[in-house]
Design a protein that fits this description.
7 strands, alpha/beta, seven-stranded mixed β-sheet, 10 helices, Spore Coat Polysaccharide Biosynthesis Protein SpsA, Chain A, about 260 residues
Length: about 260
């Protein structure tokens, strides 16, 4: 059922026979798409599915309660990063070893989960699903040309700063490992979309590797997308996060990057 990579990771996590895989589904105004996404999750791979509704004003929470999952609702809207912190805390409390982030709006196809588990390495803090790993694929599935070029540009800047060769830093499909979450102060990361980038920086700062697999992302049917003004704000914040990461490596750590960097 589990890959050699998963079983190798297990030896540093727990004494159980197999790693405890938990699917984390942050949701906001997902409605019926949440049901459709949940039903596509491959059976037999996850021990538990945890859904956290971020105070949606529609029927998302009520629909989530009809599913065979552990369902929670935030008393107020916490934002993407804030909701992911709740998801990860719930997952850790449930005894998870491997945590798969799967957005409730159906933007990412859950059928990629087996590929993610097979690709996960013992040294990984994160595994990222890249929309840009296959050339032009994101454009064919509805990503705008502007967003595509900006994403490519930001990725090039991040790779130059970090000495990495990732094809994307902004994807919302990802896998977290318990050793990484226990080492990094992910609770200090942003409550907004910058959370996704800061956790990658944290993984690299603490000496974990980051693996990528290709994913298909759809932009149809009302899935959540970042607006232009918010996207520009994110670009500036991403550059600021890179600067703070560099300063931490130079001996000036902060809340997001605590302790000495792993060489």
């Amino acid at each position: 059922m589990y890959s050699a990579g998963c079983l190798s990771i297990l030896t540093t996590m727990t004494t159980a026979v197999s790693p405890r895989v938990i699917v984390l589904m942050p949701a906001y105004c997902a409605g019926q798409r949440l049901i459709d996404t949940f039903n596509k999750i491959p059976r037999g791979l996850a021990h538990t599915v945890i859904i956290v509704d971020d105070a949606s004003p529609d029927t998302t929470f009520a629909l989530a309660q009809t599913l065979s999952a552990d369902v929670y609702r935030n008393p107020r809207n916490l934002g993407y990063g804030g909701n992911m912190k709740v998801c990860l805390q719930k997952g850790l409390a449930a005894g998870g070893d491997i945590f798969i982030e799967l957005h409730g709006d159906g933007q990412y196809d859950p059928r990629v989960i087996p590929d993610a588990l097979r690709a996960l390495r013992p040294t990984d803090g994160l595994l990222l699903g890249s929309r840009l790993m296959v050339p032009q694929q994101a454009l064919k599935h509805g990503m705008s040309q502007l967003k595509y070029q900006v994403n490519k540009g930001l990725t090039a800047i991040a790779n130059m700063s970090l000495g990495t060769q990732l094809t994307e830093f902004q994807s919302g499909f990802r896998v977290y490992t318990r050793p990484f979450l226990e080492k990094a102060n992910f609770m200090a990361a942003s409550d907004d979309h910058l959370f996704s980038f800061e956790t990658i920086l944290q993984a690299l700062y603490h000496g974990f590797t980051v693996t990528e697999i290709p994913v298909i992302c759809t932009y149809e049917g009302g899935v959540t997308q970042m607006r232009l003004r918010k996207g520009m704000k994110y670009c500036a914040e991403m550059l600021g996060a890179l600067l703070r990461s560099a300063m931490a490596r130079a001996g000036y750590p902060g809340r997001v990057f605590q302790g000495a960097p792993k060489k």
